[in-house]
Structure formats: C-alpha cells, structure tokens
Write a structure and sequence with these properties.
Shape of chain B: elongated
Strand order of the largest sheet of chain B: 7-11-6-1-4-5-12
Number of strands of chain A: 13
Number of helices of chain A: 7
Helix content of chain A: 25-40%
CATH superfamily of the largest domain in chain B: HUPs
Number of strands of chain B: 18
CATH class of the largest domain in chain B: Alpha Beta
Structural class of chain B: alpha/beta
Oligomer: heterodimer
Strand order of the largest sheet of chain A: 9-8-7-10-6-1-4-5-11
Order of helices and strands of chain A: EEEHEHEHEHEEEEHEHEEH
Number of domains of chain A: 1
Strand content of chain B: 25-35%
Largest sheet of chain B: 7 strands, parallel
Distance between the termini of chain B: 60 Å
CATH topology of the largest domain in chain B: Rossmann fold
CATH class of chain A: Alpha Beta
Helix content of chain B: 25-40%
Radius of gyration of chain B: 21 Å
Order of helices and strands of chain B: EEEHEHEHEHEEEEEEEEHEHEHEEH
Largest sheet of chain A: 9 strands, mixed
Largest interface: A-B, 82 and 97 residues
Chain lengths: 258, 317
C-alpha cells in the first residue's frame, strides 16, 4: 500500500513565537521542528507499511529548509520526501495550502493520505477536509484507532457525544488524533540513513497550481490588525526544588480557594 | 450582512454552539439557519427563538449519519440558491470538516477559532486569538461567501423570542461524498457525579504516564473535596472514563480551582477549562502551552509534587 503523510515544519516549541508586525505572519526565522502531532501520522503510516508492505512518502509545503524537519520523519522510517517550495507560496491560507498539497498528492496517487491532528503553529485542524474535497476522496478525521485492509479503511473517533466508527473505500484521506499511537524515536541507523533518502523539491507549477492561486495572492483570508487580549493577571511560576507543593498550597490558601 | 448559520442537532434538540453563533449573526444583520439530516424539520423552528428569521431544512437519507461530506454538498447547493455574505459554524468535530470542505468547494476563505464577530465599515471582522491566546488578531475575508468557525463556548445562545419560517430544500450529492459510511455509533452516557458542578477539579493528562497514574489525581481530588477531570488524549487511550473529559469534545467546566497535572494545554482541552477561576498547572515541560494561560505554573515532576500536595492538604485537617 502506498501511503502519503502530509507533514509540516513549524517553529520549535522552545522558540518564543511572535508575529512579524510588518508581514502580520508568524516569524519562522528561528529554530524549527517537525509539527509534533504529525509524528503520530508518520508512526501510523509506518505501522501500516510494516503490516502490509508498501511505501511511505512525506508530502509537505514550506520553505526549502523544511527538508531539515522532514528528515526526522525519514529517520523514523519514511521512504522519501516531496516538498513543494516556491517563492509564491508564503502567505498561503487554507485554500492555497490545500491546492498545493492536493496537487502533489495527485502526482503520488497514494492509496491512503494521512494527516496529524493539528498544526502546532496556527492551531489549524481543518486542512484534511479541504484536501479531500479537492482530491474528491472520502475523509475521516480525529481517528483514534485505524485499520487498513482489503481495500478499505475503518477508523474510530471521538465526538461530542461518544464514539463513531466510520469506514471508507481506498483511496481515502484520514486525519489521526494524537491518542492513536506513541511515535517511535529514530534509531541511530535511521538518522544516519535519512540524509541519503530521496528528497524531491517541486515548484507550484509542477503540481499544477498557478502562482496567483497560492500565497498571499490566492488567499481569501486576511489579517487586519494585531492586538493584545485581556491579561489573566499576575502569573506565578515555580521551579520545583522540593518545596513546590508547599508553595502551591500557600498560594491557594492565600487566595481563599480552600 | 446576510448570514447562513449551520445548526447541528442531537437527540431532537439544536446544539448550543450553533445557536450562540446564530444569536451573534442576527445581531449583525439578517440570519438564516440550516438544519440537515433526519428529524431536521422537527427541530428547525426552535431556531426562531434564537434569532433565525428563516431555517432551511433538508433530510435526504444521505444526511442521516453525522458525516461531513454530504453536508458540504447540501451547503454548497444552499449557498448557490441563497447567496449569503457569510456562512458561519460553531466549532465541533463535524463542523470543522464541513467548513473546511465547503471552503475548498466554493473557493471561499475560512477563518477558524474565532471568539467574536463584528462588522466594521460594512465588512465582517473576526477576532482570532493566536500564539496561545497571547495575541488577538483581527481577521477579514476577500470575496464571499465568508466562512467563519467560532470557538466552542465563545458565544452563548440568547433567547430573543422570535419565530422562524421553515423552508425545505433539495440537493444532489457528489459521487465521493457518500463513500464514507457510519458503521457503529456508541453514545457515552455520563455516569457518576458530574464534573460540571464541581468547585474544585484535579485533572490529569498524558503526563501521568499510565492509567495507574490517575491514583494520585484521585487522592488529591478526594483530599480537596473535588472532582477528577481528564484530557481527550487519555480518555481516547482508555485510561479514564469519557464522562470526566474536559475540552471541546467533552465538558466545559469553570470551577474556582482547576489543577492540571501532566496536561500540555492543547486548544482542545483549553476551551473546556479556560473559564476556571484559578488554574494551577504542574508539568515537567517548561514549554508546555498551558504555562501561557495558567495562574500558578509549576515546572517539575507531578509524581513527586502531587502526592506531597495531597499530604499537605490532608494534614491541614
């Protein structure tokens, strides 16, 4: 089975994130990492490949340096990476991103397309449904357990009212929840081998997307203004040195919460 | 401004999330609702009391399961027939996929996680908290319809006492939209004491390490006379019952004290507990998002701190 996993490079969790006041976009100049919940999608793809054979391809949209982040997933065991990188792509909203990914996915013609649960930078958790609509394939999201066999996929997912079990024929698009698995750590051998695995960079034109249909030009949403939210008030930070429990209790008692 | 608001229903009642959005839409102009699926016609008129002048209904068999893609077809049809300026959603597992699919289908802009809507200089503007809610961004749209999804719990329904005209409509379905099928649905009944009324909640997440990790959470909750809460991740993993889940797909709680142990603070959890009076977070990862919106943040090992805190609370008598 050929499995494509859509992944994204995001600012590393240790970087203090800021929005550039000029571009009104997230400042992505610092340390970066693979979007954490994408690791669950990569892990699930590897497990399906291990059970049924096949290939795991990473598909991403981002700057050329996003290949650094993609290498972590190659080190975990993915076979190759396809990155759409184009000067016209920055500033893409949901529509441009879905177009570019769908274009790259059309080329791959994978049986199964996997997404992680959300993007760590923009708190987005919707992309798969737009990509599925463009690909004209069935979609199941928030999947906490997945079986793929006999030409179909079945996923169990949590909703506001309980659990749904949904099945769809392949090819299909699935978004997994972070409860689905524990992602593996790359082995030393995996890390050493990652650099030499095939890594292809494509332009928007290569995936059939006009420059004007992506990036800021193609976006149908705009950021108008940045402001500050009401503060929660003074925050107390405690590094535990053995006395944290006492300090918490003192603060809670002081605030008359007990 | 003319809005169309997607209203979900469950067990014969309209869901609060959509009704809250409907009230806001009605305050900004002309608002219509749309209710899809089995029993749609029976529940639709109730939207009149929450601001809808008109409610469109379609109950084709293809819409009987709570799946997004047939709903994209139905909404695309309705948008074509009624040309609204905006199509608005209250966030939910289902709505997120419907909104995103509709955006792609109509080539229409979608802003999500909005906490408010307003009209400035005749244009719709959304308020969007970003970067762990440390920034509020005003967002807009180019072209129409403008698609917006409102954060769960951000807008409360307001009863205005009006009435709505209910109008059926027909739709056709795309070949791929009906390929996914619901094979089983389990409804989780809440059993045990409800956490929604608790004054104090001690909640555990994946940082507990194992289902057994909840023992120390239960002990602290008992010592404080509070209830136990859990995150979606641990409920999905089978560590703790669904009825205790706090978050977008679980309960929304606002105790005077919320102690979050081993919880990273994902948006899914945050929307269910950010209304709490005082939030204490205990987590070994200093970069966990929860430290951006707690009142008392403790960086350390919860397996050391929580039992110690329990002892201290007990010894107060």
């Amino acid at each position: 089975m050929k499995i494509a996993v859509c992944v994204k490079q995001v600012p590393d969790a240790t970087v203090h994130k800021r929005i550039d006041p000029t571009t009104k976009r997230l400042d992505r100049s610092g340390e970066t990492a693979l979007n954490p919940t994408d690791l669950n999608a990569v892990e699930e793809a590897l497990r399906i490949k291990e059970a049924h054979g096949g290939e795991v391809v990473l598909v991403s949209l981002g700057p050329q340096k996003a290949l650094d982040a993609l290498r972590k997933a190659l080190a975990m065991g993915a076979d190759r990476a396809v990155l759409v990188a184009d000067d016209a792509a920055p500033g893409s909203d949901l529509l441009g991103t879905a177009r570019a990914l769908a274009g790259a996915l059309e080329r791959e013609a994978a049986d199964l397309v996997l997404f992680g649960q959300s993007s760590g930078d923009g708190d987005g958790a919707v992309l798969w449904a737009a990509v599925a609509d463009r690909l004209r394939r069935p979609v199941i999201s928030q999947v906490a357990s997945l079986t793929a066999e006999g030409g179909s996929v079945t996923g169990k997912r949590q909703t506001e009212h309980g659990y749904d079990v949904i099945t769809a024929p392949l090819p299909a698009v699935i978004a997994v929840s972070d409860a689905i698995n524990e992602p593996r750590y790359p082995s030393l051998k995996g890390i050493m081998g990652a650099k030499t695995k095939p890594q292809e960079t494509l332009a928007l034109a290569d995936v059939g997307v006009d420059a004007g249909a992506a990036g800021e030009a193609g976006a149908k949403t705009v950021v108008l203004e940045l402001g500050s939210p009401p503060s929660r008030g003074d925050q107390v930070k405690i590094e535990d040195d053995g006395s944290a429990a006492q300090k918490v209790l003192d603060l809670v008692v002081e605030r008359k919460l007990l | 401004m003319k809005s169309l608001v997607f209203l979900e229903h469950y067990h014969g009642a309209l869901e609060k999330g959509g009704l809250g959005v409907l009230g806001k839409a009605a305050s900004l102009g002309e608002a219509a609702g749309v209710v899809l699926g089995e029993g749609a016609a029976d529940v639709a008129s109730a939207a009149g009391a929450f601001g809808a002048a008109k409610v469109y209904v379609c109950d084709s068999p293809e819409l009987s399961s709570p799946l997004p893609q047939p709903r994209v077809d139905a909404l695309a049809t309705l948008v074509g027939e009624t040309s609204p300026d905006a199509v608005l959603f209250g966030a939910s597992v289902l709505s997120a996929d419907v909104a995103s699919g509709l955006a792609a289908r109509l080539d229409a802009g979608l802003n999500w996680d909005l906490t408010d809507l307003s009209v400035k200089d005749g244009e719709l503007v959304g308020a969007r908290p970003a970067l762990g809610d440390t920034v509020i961004v005003d967002v807009g749209w180019k072209g129409s319809p403008k698609l917006g999804m409102i954060r769960s719990g951000a807008l409360d329904p307001v009863e205005s006492g009006g009435s709505a005209e209910v109008e059926p409509f027909e739709t056709t379905f795309s070949d791929f939209s009906t390929l996914a099928t619901l094979v089983e649905q389990t409804q989780e009944e809440s059993s045990g004491p409800s956490i929604e009324d608790a004054d104090i909640i001690v909640a555990g997440g994946r940082g507990l390490g194992s289902p057994e990790g909840f023992t120390i959470i239960e002990e602290l909750a008992a010592a404080l006379g509070g209830a136990v809460g859990a995150t979606r991740a641990v409920v999905d993993a089978g560590w703790y019952p669904y009825a205790t889940q706090v978050g977008q797909t679980g309960k929304t709680v606002s105790p005077r004290l919320y102690i979050a142990c081993g919880i990273s603070g994902a948006i899914q959890h945050k929307v269910g507990m950010q209304g709490s009076g005082t939030i204490v977070a205990i987590n070994k990862d200093p970069n966990a998002p929860i430290f951006d919106f707690c009142d008392i943040g403790v960086v350390g090992d919860l397996h050391q701190i929580v039992p110690k805190l329990t002892e201290l609370v007990r010894s107060r008598g």
